[in-house]
Amino acid sequence: MTDTTSSASLHALFRNRLGSVMRSPVRDARLTCCVCLAPLGRPGFAMCWQCHRHASHAGREGWQLADRVVPLTYSVDGEQSNLDMHRYKALGSDEERFATDAWQRLSLLVTAFGLRHVDCLDAASRQPVSRLTTVPSLRGRPGPHPLDALTAHLPRSWRPAPLIPSLHVPEQVRRTLDPRHFTVADPGGVAGRHVCVLEDTWVRGGHAQSAAAALHAAGAVEVTILPIARRLAPSFAHNRAFIEGTQQDYALDHCPVTPGPCPAPG
């Protein structure tokens, strides 16, 4: 099999397994938030309302948010994509979970980024990623979170940089922006480093941005949040118009990092 045939087969695999369920993210300053890629409901603004609120809050508190957010797809309420984001972590055992279509689709999304777009992220960054963490639950979930298993599809050179969740955070504030919700287990391991934060679903972003702010406070010089999905609710009129008008089936060669083609390495 030639390299060209192999590449075509790989593209076909991702298109066939993901294209009818997942959507490529839209990075367009005219249409989407410059942070989370949600559709803009207010013409002339660079950020959605929630990301602007986070930026204002962080500015008042002196917190530094993520340098960039790179969603891999959108999950839409009422569609299979959103069901996948719930079902992949619903089952008790790894054996049951790994056999589900939901888990396999999410694994393919993360694998696609690891295979094709890690170099894109490094090219768009001040320095290459060298540390990796996930956003831990504040609900006291026992045992490893299923999200942790998905990190196996990302570069092994990204060494773990665990975050420790705070105990007894009231439910009503768990999604608010507050870096005190997390402690960096090894501050020396992230100091001066570019840390990638893998998150499953970005809804409002406060949970992941709290982790990013905690990492920056511990000395990380660059933080990228990598949500598997940016969730959209069609009940909002501007979301519904965006979903209906900008359908982009998932494609391996669609760069999630930049608004154009994949950047050249270096």
* Main sheet characteristics: 6 strands, parallel
- From the alpha carbons, calculate the radius of gyration and give it in angstroms: 18 Å
Beta-strand portion reads: 5-15%
Mean pLDDT across every amino acid position: 91
The secondary-structure element order is HHEEHHHEHEEEHEHEH
> What form results from the Cα inertia axes?
globular
Tell how many strands the DSSP assignment holds. Answer: 8
Which ranges are low-confidence, i.e. pLDDT below 50, for 5 or more consecutive residues?
none
Structural class: alpha/beta
* Number of DSSP helical runs: 9
End-to-end distance, in Å?
Answer: 30 Å
Helix content: 25-40%
Quick gist of this model?
This protein is α/β, with parallel strands linked by helices. It is built from nine helices and eight strands.
